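Usage

Read records sequentially. Each one opens with the input sequence:
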Amino acid sequence: MTAALPFRRRRIVNCVAWATGVSVAAMRGRLLWPADIIEARHLAMWATRRLTEQSTTQIGGFFRRHHTTVLQALAKIERRRDDEPDYRRRTDILLAACRRALANDR
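and closes with the structure output:
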């Protein structure tokens, strides 16, 4: 893994943390509740997968989760994006914010 990948991932996760109000530590922690932490973690996994070439195993390692948990999170976000136009719009805005954060570092 190149040095740029962990930096890009951390930048994306920080962007999601800022947008959701959930700390990176909470997203990486073992808490299974409350739902806002789970949602933020899933969004961070999804954005990381969309904006980097990291595998689900690499993403899961960062979040201290199994790669199948990452796969489930990705599927859940995509299903919700397909079913809820407002959610799709909000996640598109989040993804654009993460892209801008990454572009500012170049």
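Summary fields computed downstream for this record:
- Residues 59 and 65 are 8 Å apart (CA to CA).
- Residues 85-104 form the longest helix (20 residues).
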